[in-house]
């Protein structure tokens, strides 16, 4: 256990991370601006719909142009969430919320050109989400049949699998997707408020509408029989819908400063489980992020009626400090946050984001984090986050950047259809469903570099095998990248 004196008090500094694995250089410097640029560029590779003339990921082309036709509505656009060709609304809305929060919290740290690119990436998502709530008492939650899609290895430009539209109509519940959509649109309304107030108002108006649906028809969207077969087992609601109700209300409170949303968070906190499952943050479980978000009002505006949220946020953050008596987050031998299951880097990026946001709240009010036996300075939270960032970018036992296209050593066989199949611009002939298997099974590197994609990452032993078939480790997702945009932006301005 190591301590350092800061400002006359004793604060924990995570020196265990600096010496956790002496056989690789933890001090290697990184070009955070280059990584930020690439992290944003990645979203262009995930685009669905008609691509603009300034599309920089030039190996991609138009796709999904008939999406929504079975409902006689336009559902083109948006993002494919990962390496397949499905548009899942639940993780896409969370991705959008995190892109917006990245801009809100760290946009001022971004170079102007990258801030513009971040806004473009965000608007590609919000334009689509507006379409999903465009009809009264209905929310579109998914486009594409996962069964047929996952049975094929096809470029998005060649898709001939069913583009099934999954919609939830009142009074059927969709509190999770509608609540997350409300959060995404409300957060984005804040992000766009200065640059495009008209669009910001549109986003906010639709955020309120989405939240009303979420609150009026309570329940999980994946409990609907007509949805379950499409959403599950991929993006079922595994952790309950209650957190999305609070999350949506919290973002609407921040966007509107309306006391009705403050009252909602205050009065519904216990009944909706605000004290539950606080040690996770991702597309399915919003509790830790909710608590950090709401803590801003307590820390900066002394809204003590929300003090329980701050207590929960700090309880969560203390679990990340190995020397804390409440520590129970697992780290790999090389220092990476690790949680069992696939796509582990989603936890590393989202948790690092929360650490930096909370550190900002504390710094602005000259406060620290109390972890029982320890007093933790904001800078400690930042150092913990930086360790995760540097690990992802290459300071790890494999010496491998888990961001594609960053540095000279990164995964070349990622689990991603468009990246692994020849570009339609190089191979104009149609590649049918099963014909793509040849490329999936090939040991050759992917012909198209999906620049900026962050893969699922290594196992608990820090080992990563560059294997296209190992989707739990080699598949990138939008919700890994989205919080990392904000994290990288902070370190662009504060590299050391």
UniProtKB/TrEMBL annotation:
It is an enzyme of class 3 (hydrolase). Residues 32-488 form the Glycoside hydrolase family domain. Residues 1-28 form the signal peptide. The active site is at residues 415, 466, 475. GO terms for biological process: cellulose catabolic process. The keyword Signal applies. GO terms for molecular function: cellulase activity. The keyword Repressor does not apply. InterPro entries: 6-hairpin_glycosidase_sf, 6hp_glycosidase-like_sf, Glyco_hydro_9, Glyco_hydro_9_Asp/Glu_AS, Glyco_hydro_9_His_AS. Belongs to the glycosyl hydrolase 9 (cellulase E) family. This is Endoglucanase.
């Amino acid at each position: 256990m190591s301590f350092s004196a800061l400002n006359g008090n004793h604060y924990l500094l995570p020196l265990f991370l600096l010496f956790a694995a002496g056989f690789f250089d933890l001090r290697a410097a990184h070009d955070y601006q280059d990584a930020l640029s690439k992290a944003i560029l990645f979203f262009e590779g995930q685009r669905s719909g008609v691509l603009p003339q300034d599309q920089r990921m030039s190996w991609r082309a138009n796709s999904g142009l008939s999406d929504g036709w079975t409902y006689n509505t336009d559902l083109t656009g948006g993002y494919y969430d990962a390496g397949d060709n499905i548009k899942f609304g639940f993780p896409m809305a969370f991705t959008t919320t995190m892109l917006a929060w990245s801009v809100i919290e760290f946009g001022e740290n971004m170079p102007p050109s990258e801030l513009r690119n971040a806004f473009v990436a965000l608007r590609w998502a919000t334009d689509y989400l507006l379409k999903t709530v465009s009809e009264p008492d209905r929310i579109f939650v998914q486009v594409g049949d996962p069964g047929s899609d996952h049975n094929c290895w096809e470029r998005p430009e060649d898709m001939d699998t069913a583009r099934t539209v999954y919609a939830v109509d009142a009074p059927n519940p969709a509190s999770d997707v509608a609540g997350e959509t409300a959060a995404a649109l409300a957060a984005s309304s804040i992000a766009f408020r200065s640059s495009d107030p008209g669009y910001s108002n549109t986003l906010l108006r639709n955020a309120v509408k989405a939240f009303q649906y979420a609150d009026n028809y309570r329940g999980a969207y994946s409990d609907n029989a007509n949805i379950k077969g499409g959403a599950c087992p991929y993006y079922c609601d595994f952790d309950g819908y209650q957190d999305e109700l609070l999350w949506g209300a919290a973002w609407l409170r921040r966007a509107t400063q309306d006391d009705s949303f403050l009252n909602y968070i205050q009065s519904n906190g216990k009944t909706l489980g605000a004290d539950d499952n606080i040690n996770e943050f991702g597309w399915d479980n919003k509790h830790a992020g909710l608590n950090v978000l709401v803590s801003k009002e307590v820390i900066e505006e002394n809204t003590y009626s929300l003090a329980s949220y701050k207590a929960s946020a700090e309880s969560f953050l203390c679990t990340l400090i190995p020397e804390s008596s409440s520590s129970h987050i697992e780290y790999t031998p090389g220092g990476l946050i690790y949680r069992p299951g696939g796509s582990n880097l989603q936890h590393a990026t989202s948790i690092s984001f929360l650490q930096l946001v909370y550190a900002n709240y504390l710094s602005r009010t000259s406060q620290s984090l109390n972890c029982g036996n320890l007093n933790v300075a904001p800078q400690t939270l930042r150092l913990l986050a930086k360790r995760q960032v540097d690990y992802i970018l290459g300071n790890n036992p494999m010496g491998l950047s888990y961001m594609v296209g960053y540095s000279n050593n990164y995964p070349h066989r990622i689990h991603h259809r468009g990246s692994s199949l020849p570009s339609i611009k190089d191979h104009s002939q149609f590649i049918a469903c099963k014909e793509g298997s040849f490329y999936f099974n090939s040991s050759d590197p992917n012909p198209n570099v999906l620049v900026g994609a962050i893969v699922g990452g290594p196992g608990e032993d820090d080992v990563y095998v560059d294997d296209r078939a190992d989707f739990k480790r080699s598949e990138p997702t939008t919700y890994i990248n989205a919080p990392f945009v904000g994290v990288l932006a902070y370190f662009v301005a504060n590299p050391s």
